[in-house]
């Protein structure tokens, strides 16, 4: 009897979890939960891990929002370009003519004035390490307990103007997108592990929170999904020029900005699409894949809630090209280390659990 009860409760927990969060490859529905205006063109957005705090940056100001879209504070910036927020929403970093670090209440904790404009910023989950793409250079800063002083831990010259920077949750894996169209993957000490040539210029990149998956896209209407070793999982043409990409915590959900908001599974299936004439250029998805923040050309910021929809997910993009672990090309400089890849095992696990439930019922009849 005790074993039967354990099986029953285990099944209940799994089913409840499946109802609460989107499942890999499952069709999604989305609804806008709030919208707020900035009065200026937004150039970057970010979400906290739980989706309860959001941020947006324009060329002149950075804004911090609560879960209802209320602007908690704003702060003037000079030629703002990028924004990042720590997982708990306690720290916020911005890039532009200056590198600024804010506390949750809007106080400036630290600032850095580089020789050239910062194009991309990233911050670790605990807010203790921040990264900046400055020209062709990548800088890593370590901050003290009060986050009011920082030292440059390391810096490197990529030789390629950096367009975007993304890190995993711990800062142990760092990805940059170069103006040449190359994707660069570094370890936490700044060592280049591999480089992937997309053949597209002005690449935007993102890495999942667990470091398992890398996404890249360009204004030349191509989307790439790679594993952590630089091997291509799939690529697909986009409907429009892609200006931003973002990945969920485990890499199972990819969202891009191409004027609208298409959401893909790890297999390249379109699970949801927000089609609009608002010209969306910036997106960020929460690690649990339940919320998306996006901009519009009208200077508004919106947050959407995602949840499982009835019915199967859409088919993969008809032009998507899926690959099965190809050998890396000479240009990719792939590391020899092995790492775990995600497997679409959710359907098999669900089938096994249902079989177990049926067995339990027969046993107790």
From TrEMBL:
Keywords: Kinase, Serine/threonine-protein kinase, Transferase. Residues 307-345 are annotated as: Disordered. This is Serine/threonine protein kinase with WD40 repeats. SUPFAM superfamilies: Quinoprotein alcohol dehydrogenase-like (SSF50998). It comes from the Archaea. Residues 60-176, 180-298 form the Pyrrolo-quinoline quinone repeat domain. GO terms for molecular function: protein serine/threonine kinase activity. The keyword Mitochondrion does not apply. The keyword Kinase applies. Gene3D superfamilies: YVTN repeat-like/Quinoprotein amine dehydrogenase. Residues 320-338 have a biased composition (Polar residues). It comes from Methanoculleus bourgensis (strain ATCC 43281 / DSM 3045 / OCM 15 / MS2). PANTHER family: CELL SURFACE PROTEIN (PTHR34512), OUTER MEMBRANE PROTEIN ASSEMBLY FACTOR BAMB (PTHR34512:SF30).
């Amino acid at each position: 009897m005790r074993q039967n009860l354990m099986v029953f409760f285990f099944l209940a927990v799994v089913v409840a979890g499946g109802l609460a969060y989107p499942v890999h490859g499952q069709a999604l529905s989305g609804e806008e939960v709030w919208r707020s205006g900035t009065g200026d063109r937004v150039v970057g957005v970010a979400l906290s891990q739980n989706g309860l705090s959001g941020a947006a940056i324009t060329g002149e100001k950075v804004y911090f929002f609560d879960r209802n879209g209320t602007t908690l504070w704003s702060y003037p910036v000079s030629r703002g370009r990028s924004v990042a927020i720590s997982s708990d929403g306690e720290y916020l970093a911005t890039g532009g003519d200056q590198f600024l670090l804010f506390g949750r209440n809007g106080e400036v904790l630290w600032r850095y004035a580089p020789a050239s404009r910062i194009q991309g910023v990233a911050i670790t989950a605990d807010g203790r390490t921040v990264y900046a793409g400055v020209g062709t250079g990548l800088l890593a800063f370590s901050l003290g307990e009060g986050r009011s002083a920082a030292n440059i831990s390391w810096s490197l010259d990529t030789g390629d103007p950096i367009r975007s920077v993304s890190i995993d949750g711990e800062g142990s894996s760092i990805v940059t997108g170069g103006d040449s169209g190359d994707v660069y993957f570094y370890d936490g000490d700044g060592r280049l592990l591999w480089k992937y040539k997309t053949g597209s210029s002005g690449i935007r990149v993102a890495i999942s929170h667990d470091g398992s998956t890398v996404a890249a896209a360009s204004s030349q209407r191509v989307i790439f999904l790679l594993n952590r070793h630089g091997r291509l999982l799939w690529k697909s043409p986009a409907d429009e020029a892609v200006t931003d990409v973002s990945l969920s915590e485990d890499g199972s959900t990819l969202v891009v900005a191409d004027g609208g908001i298409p959401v893909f599974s790890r297999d390249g299936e379109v699970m949801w699409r927000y089609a609009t004439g608002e010209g969306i250029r910036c997106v960020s998805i929460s690690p649990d894949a339940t919320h998306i923040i996006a901009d519009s050309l009208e200077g508004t910021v919106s947050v959407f809630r995602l949840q499982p929809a009835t019915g199967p997910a859409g088919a993969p993009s008809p032009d998507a090209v899926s690959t099965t672990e190809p050998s890396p090309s000479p240009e990719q400089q792939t590391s020899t280390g092995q790492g775990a890849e995600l497997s679409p095992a959710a359907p098999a696990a669900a089938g096994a659990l249902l079989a177990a439930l049926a067995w339990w019922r027969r046993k107790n009849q």
